[in-house]
Amino acid sequence: MSQSVFIAKHIREFYFGGNWTAVNLKDGLAGLSWKEAIHKIDELHSIAELVYHINYFARVVTRVLEGEPLKGKDSESFDCPTINNSSDWEELKNRTWEEAEKFISLVENLPEEKLSKLMADEKYGSYQRNLIGIIEHSHYHLGQIILIRKLLKKGI
């Protein structure tokens, strides 16, 4: 298995399941109402904001993999669209799954020799570093989502 396919497999497992941790984003959001998704507990981000944030960085790198310049700002990464009903929540999730599939496909087809090349600028490091970083970053926020769901279940 090529390194690109291996990395893409890990990204797929994060979103859709089958990873070593037995936790994935799709299952982590299953059965969550739109009101729960936007509920804020103290200073924590809402689950919807975290979902948007996770996918924001995948979307930025997707565009780079498609040959576009790196354009993304940390300051915009939590600018989740307003969710006023279940349709809005479903739209955010569906967009996330669609964009994840596109991202995974591009990573799977990334030439092996490109993994060690710089992605956009020296300060960002290699493609491999960024892709592994996205997996780590996504798991970090998935842990937050799972903990927030537990707090919501307790009525906090």
Could you give the order of the helices and strands? HHHHHH
What structural category arises from helix and sheet content? mainly alpha
CATH architecture: Up-down Bundle
The largest sheet, given as strand count, sense and whether it forms a barrel, is: none
Q: Which value, in Å, is the CA radius of gyration?
A: 16 Å
Number of helices: 6
**Name of the CATH homologous superfamily:** dinb family like domain
The stretches of 5 or more residues where confidence is low (pLDDT under 50) are none
Estimate the global geometry from the Cα principal axes: globular
* N-end to C-end Cα span: 45 Å
Summarize the structure.
The protein has six helices and no strands. It has helices at 3-16, 25-29, 34-38, 47-65, 86-108, 127-153.
Description:
This protein is mainly alpha-helical. It has one domain: Up-down Bundle (Four Helix Bundle (Hemerythrin (Met), subunit A)). It contains six helices and no strands. It has helices spanning 3-16, 25-29, 34-38, 47-65, 86-108, 127-153. Helix 1 (3-16) packs parallel to helix 6 (127-153).
Secondary structure layout plus pairing:
Blueprint: H1 3-16, H2 25-29, H3 34-38, H4 47-65, H5 86-108, H6 127-153
Helix pairs in contact: 1-5, 1-6, 4-5, 4-6
